[in-house]
Each structure stands twice: as C-alpha cells, then as structure tokens.
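notes to self, project folder thing:

trying the whole complex as one job this time. last attempt i did each chain seperately and stitching them together was a nightmare. two parts in total, labels are on each line so i dont mix them up again. if this works i'll redo the older ones the same way
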Amino acid sequence: MLNASLNELSAALAQKKISSAELTQLFLDRTSRLNGALNAFITVDAEKSLAQALAADERIAKGDAKPLTGIPVAHKDIFVTKGWRTTCGSKMLSNFVSPYDAHVIERFNAAGAVILGKTNMDEFAMGSSSETSFYGPVKNPWGPAYVPGGSSGGSTAAIAARMAPAATGTDTGGSIRQPAALSGVSGLKPTYGLVSRYGMIAFASSLDQGGPIAKSAEDLALLLNVMAGFDERDSTSVERAAEDYRRELDRPLAGLRVGVPKEHFGGGLAAEVGKAIEAALAQLEKLGAKRVPVNLPSSGLSVPAYYVIAPAEASSNLSRFDGVRYGHRAKEYRDLADMYFRTRAEGFGAEVRRRILIGTYVLSHGYYDAYYLKAQKIRRLIADDFVAAFKQCDLIVGPTAPTVAFKIGAKAADPVQMYLNDIYTIPANLAGLPAMSIPCGFGKDDLPVGLHIVGNYFSEARMLNLAHQYQKATDWHQREPGGIRP
Amino acid sequence: MNWEIVIGLETHAQLSTQSKMFSGASTAFGAAPNTQASAVDIALPGVLPVANKDAVERAIRFGLAVGGENVINRRSVFARKNYFYPDLPKGYQISQYELPIVKGGEIRILTKSGEKAVRLTRAHLEEDAGKSLHEAFRDSSGIDLNRAGVPLLEIVSEPDMRSAEEAVAYAKTLHSLVRWIGICDGNMQEGSFRCDANVSVRRPGGPLGTRAEIKNLNSFRFLEHAIEFEAKRQIDILDDGGKIVQETRLYDADRDETRAMRTKEEAHDYRYFPDPDLSPLEVSEKWMGEIKAKLPELPEAKRKRYQIEYALSLYDASLLTDTREKAEYFELVCRSLEGPAPKTVANWITGELSALLNDRGIDFSQLLISGKAFAKLLDRIKDGTISANVAKEILHGMANGEGDADAIIAKRGLKQISDAGAIEKIVDQVIAANPKQVEDYRAGKEKAFNSLVGQVMKATQGKANPAQVNEILKRKLAG
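result (full assembly):
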C-alpha cells in the first residue's frame, strides 16, 4: 500500500480491500515512526484525520466517492486549514489556528480526501533547503545528513519516505520542483493563476503558485484535477473551463519537440547531474521525441531579478504580521513602535528578516526605479525568451537544480550560494509558466537528480504526458530511499 | 505688503456601496466594533482582495461628471501604500498611485466675486483604515475595523483657490455633486465626506510658498476656520521674517487653531508599488457608455438651462441646483403650473419651502406635498383666491397632510376677500376705531399706515386682498 499509486489506492478503497480509516492509520503510523528522524511534519492530528477518514468511508459506502475520496494528503503548512494550527514554518504563527480553509483545502475536502497533517517548510517559504523552519530542519530521506531541498521540503520528504501518498506544495522560485528533485519525487508548479492563492499564505504574490507533489506524473495529474479551478476570491485566478489533466498521459511522444536550452548546461552544473539529464534526453529521443536546441539568453538575469521582486512583494505581504490581531506578540514593550520591533524581531527568523530588509530597500524612495522597475523589465525579457523558444519547441527540458542535495548547514552561511540553487527554476515563475520536476537518476552519494520540464501556458497535460511516458519507460520514480526502514 | 492665499483640497468621499472596497463585508455605519470586519478586512494570513465593481462604477460616474470620458483612465492600477499602524491591518493601504482612475476635470464654483473653475488633479479609489479607540481603555487602545476597507474616492484639486470662501464654495459644490450623482451620502458627521486642506501664502503672482497640510476637516465651518487661522499664522511668520516649514497640521476645533503633527522630515516613505494581488483596472468603452447613459442631468447643465429656459438668474439657478431633489421638485412644479412665472416658483422653493423643510428636519423625499399640489397652491395666489401670506399657512397645512390647497381653503374658509364693498366696510370700521393712527399717518408717519393695514387684515383673518386693502385705505385716508 505504501508504494501504491493513487489509482491503485482508489481502486482498493472502492473494492473495500481497505478502508480509508485503515489507510489513514497506516500512513499515520509510518509518520509517527519516521517523523522524529525526518521532521517532515509540523502538525499531525490523528483524531482529526481519522474523523475525516470515517466520513470518507461513509461516502464510499454510499457510492458517492470521487477519485481522491478516502486518500490521505499531506499539506504544506502554508495552506490555512480550518481548525488546524497553520504556522507557515514560523514562530510568528506558532499559535495561529485558522478560522477558514484555503481554496486548495476546500477542494480536497470536497473531493473527500483526508488531511494527513501539515508539512514542514522553510519559514514563509523563504529558502531552498527547508532549514529555515522555526520547527527545525527537514532531513532528506535519501540521507539524513542532507537537506531535502525547499521550501516544500516537508512535503517532498514525506512522499519520498512514503509517509504520505500525496502532498501539496507551493512554488515561488522553485519551491516545489527543487525539493522534488533533491528528494527524488515528482512535483508540478502549474501556470500562474491555475490554482487559487486564496488561503495560501503569501510570500511573493505575483510568483506564488500551489501545486501537487507525488511519486509519479500520473498521480500529479489526478491531484491537479482537484487543485486547479477558478476562484473568484483570487483576482489573479484564471477563469477557464475545467480540464482532465490525465487526458494526454498515454499519448505517444513521437514528434514531440523537446527544447534544450544551452544556458542551463553551462558552468555551475554538476557533471553528474548533467550526465543524468543527458541520459534522460536520450531516453526521450528513444521514445520518439525530437531534441531541439533553444536559447534563453536572459535567463542569467533571472536570479538577481527574482531577488528584487520576491523580497519587494514579501516585505509588504509580511507587514500584516505585526502582533496586533493574531500570531506572536512580544511579551514586553515600551510603546507601539517597540511592540512592532520586538514582535517582528522575535517572530521572524534570520532569512525572513533578511528578505524583508532587501524588499524594503528596493522599494524605498530613490531606489525603486533602479531595482524594482528594472527587475520588472528583466522579467518581461525572460518571458519574451520563452515566447521565442516555444516557437521552436513544445516543451523545454533540462536540469531542475545544478547539484544533488547538499549537506544540512553547508550553505546556511552563504545566502547567494543558496539562492543559486534555483537558477533553473526561477525563470518559469518570472514568466508564469508551468514547470515540473521528475526523478531521472542518481548522483554522488546515491542522491536523486531531477529532470526539469517547462511548458507553455496551460500546457500541463502535455508536460504530464512527457513525464508519464518517461516514467513508463524508467523506474527512477519508484526507487525508495534505502536508509528508511519502518 | 499683501499676501495671496493659495489653497488646494484633498477630499475623501466615502462611496455609497453596500459592501467594502475589497471584501464582501457591510459598510453600514454604527455597528458594534469589529462586527463588520471579514477575514479580508482583518487581514488574516492568506486572504486576498477583490475590487468592488460598484465602487469602480461610482468613481467612473464622478469622472464623467467632472470631465467626461476624456478624464477616465481606461487602465488604472491599484498600488500598495506601506506603513505600520494598528488600525491598518495589512500594514499597507490599497490605493491608486501612478495611474488613478480619474485624471483631470474641473468643478465650477460660485462666490460673491462670480463664477470660477477649480481644476482637479485626479481622483483615485482607495480603502479606508480602521479606527483606534483610546478613551475606553486604560494603558492600551482598542481597534475597530468596521471602517477598514470602506471604499473611498480621494479627489485632489489643483491649488486653484485663493480664499477660505472659495475653498468652502468648492467643498460645498463637490459635496452637492457627489450626492447628486449618487456616489456618496455626504454625511459629514459620520465621516463620509472629509477634507484635507493644503494652504500656503505667496506674493500675488509670485512662486508658490511652502505649504502646510491640515488634516481631517469634517465640516465646512472647520474648513473655513482652519484655513483662515492657518493663512494668518503663515503670514504672521513671514511678516516677522520667518520661514514656513512643510508639515502636516491638525485643526483643533475647540481652540480654533491648527497644530503641528509631523514635518516633512518625519514623513513616511510609503514604498508604493503596484499591488500584485489585483490586476490593472480596465474600463471598457461599453461599460463607460452604460454608466454614462444612466448619469442624471448634472447641476451645471441644469443651471445653464434654468437661466435660458426659465429666465432665472445664475444665483437663483445655483440655489435651486443645490441638491438634485430640489432641482427636480422645481422642474416638477414648473411643469404643472398654470399661472405664475418660474421665478415665483424659485422664490417659493428657495424661500418658504426650504425653510419649512429645514424647520422640520426633512428633505424633499419626505415632503408630503406633490409638485402638482404645490403648483396648484401657487396658482391660487396668482388667480387671487388667496394672498401670499395665507398661502404660507396653507403650505404648512399641506405639509401636515391636511389635503390640497383647495381643500384647506374651503375647510378653513381662507378664500380671499376681493369684494371692494366688503373691504371698504371694514376699512371704515378700522379708521373709526383708530383715530390716533389716522392722525399719525396724516402727520406724515408712514408706519401708522402699516399698522392700519394690519388691523384690516386682522379683522378679515388675513383674507382681504392686500393690494385692494392698500388702495382703498390710501384713498379713504386721503379723503
């Protein structure tokens, strides 16, 4: 059951081979055994989960089940969840129990899925290693000395360690894809606007996008069917007809033009990662895809542009955490200004404070044009690069991250080295394009490598098609971390 | 040496929508604290704003009224104004900065020195903040977020006004306009319409002086007093060889003075940037056309028309177009009229009827007298059935719901006596009974005549035709 696909779990539930309560208990048990070592979950509430599972079982008995009814899903602790503590990985929200559900949670609840728990993450999703969490770092199931990537590292670690069959994440600069790559799982960041941001605690509003994390592309398609959809409460939500993201899974890859950007194979890319990607490209060619060289000339500017835009928006988005209405408030303060200073200095960790300072600086009078406006111009250039590239190819493929997982603490002292981890993933966020990562091999110390797939706007079904066909021909996505023994 | 006062106004008009600018919470005034604050208004983690279409439509209506389609930006952008304050839940206010929805336009004002156009810089949409409550708490403050997120239109004028009188005329005209086009209830006590005044002084024709901004003036009287005090303060400083500091000042109504609040150096850096949670606001030609078609005839157009169509003075036309209800009532009465001239109607509406409404604290919508009934009343004066004085009495009866003019005339027997023989008889009696007044009059005391007229009117319970009484009395006294 732990290795089963969502389709298999759904069938087992429908055929009453197992109840949702039993299935939920199975994953809860595994979580309670492994979480001490991996720290993938911030909050687990067996009672709540099992109550939902029992309701799902009733629904199944009534013949009212949908594909995800009764299946446990772990949610990144950035999605506010009614009645659940929602911390966003921060001390600031260590006491915050949400009075409402995020749109994504509502959709999963409506589908009859079971909330398995809230997963650990970099504080306010700011990080590429899941080390900045107030609740301690997440360990990589492939090697507990290594980071799982971030910021959705709790969710990717939970999938890798088979603590959950499905999970959610959010991706602002690579926060689904990079940890999926480093943890050896599959993760998808949809087109900006496809998944409602309502109830997803904002980091950088113009870049944030929620998406699914699972073992396979097939599972991702099923999860995306639930997550995607118009929401009038999010003004950036896209109003378009619902689609079945599974519809193209079985399409042959013959004739598919796969663009390979030479900029993503330059210096900084670890040889072992490059080798795994080359092998994956060869596999895709074997499946009938055609390899096309493409250029993304502005992509080198994406990290600096991102580290202006994202902190700028974050500095404003995080202003609401002021200790006045909810969340952490300093115990002692002299006056109002002192309450703000202390509350925010105590409530936010170092990386969050750093980004608030950067963001405040770039928006300041006299610097706005030089930083924020210029970054917005670069953002347009990057989007234009993709428009040109997609005239030559259907999908773009390359490495998700320049290296395999690094050791916990290795980059903590050097933010710029940390930021460069997202060099291949950030351009898709800046352009609002869908992108995903799937396992495609192993590098040093048997750590997983991720294959990055970027599609044109709303081409998720086609991306999932490529990923699924690749996964049918390979078994990287089925490999389990050896060190984890329940 | 003389100084010229230069004034520009920033006015916050609360848009009269059911729900808030970016949330579905109610905007009704006076609810218990924090009962009208939704998840969006209290800025819970994860919530997002959605622009209120009704508020946008009202802003467009305003733009069309002050400048037509040319002053409506087809694309405007919501921006975040960042600062920390406990009654600002998000830590930023959503406003419009570089691209407001209305750019330009003008307001025409009328003062003793004539008509004048005050140019508008812009008008932009924004949300209000909440309210800090200090009185009821010890060692702490309370926050009421009912107001937080209420839609506002901030209307910014050019520094085109040169006196407190002009500023008040502008504010009154603007106040009348926003109610006229139905975008704001204009309730100043509840804070639905409040002004900030930018005041500076300069040598006539010289470069602009350093200005002070006086915040939150929520009555026309305060506006007038604050500007007068502030201008005098600045002139005194300059006359003494001092310099004006650019600063924000508060008007203290109890002391009738302005006080420094913060200087330019202490001003916030608001770090404005486009709000990534909201797409740019697009106004289609179709939508604008629909809004334009629903727009009522505007006060300025009515003023012009009244001067031509009804031969009224600009002054009368302005008084009548003070509110849309008054103007519409005037037109209704004129349409039903048989005898009297529109000028008479204008006098009655701006005089006796306005006084009546004022006394009773009601407006035209609560008036029980239909335009047609009012026209009939005026017709009865014209045809001599009643005198103007009696008509006033009847008017109050009509306002009490006692029926139309004819019914009240009949019921109370108020029909005017125009029978010369009957009046002569009474005049004779009055002359006989008041020898002293008659003597005084003949000795040249004009006042005595009025007293005698009064006696005649009294004797006829006011029903005698005043013109006839005058004529007969004069004749008899002369004889």
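what i see at first glance: The mean pLDDT of chain B is 93.
need to look closer tmrw
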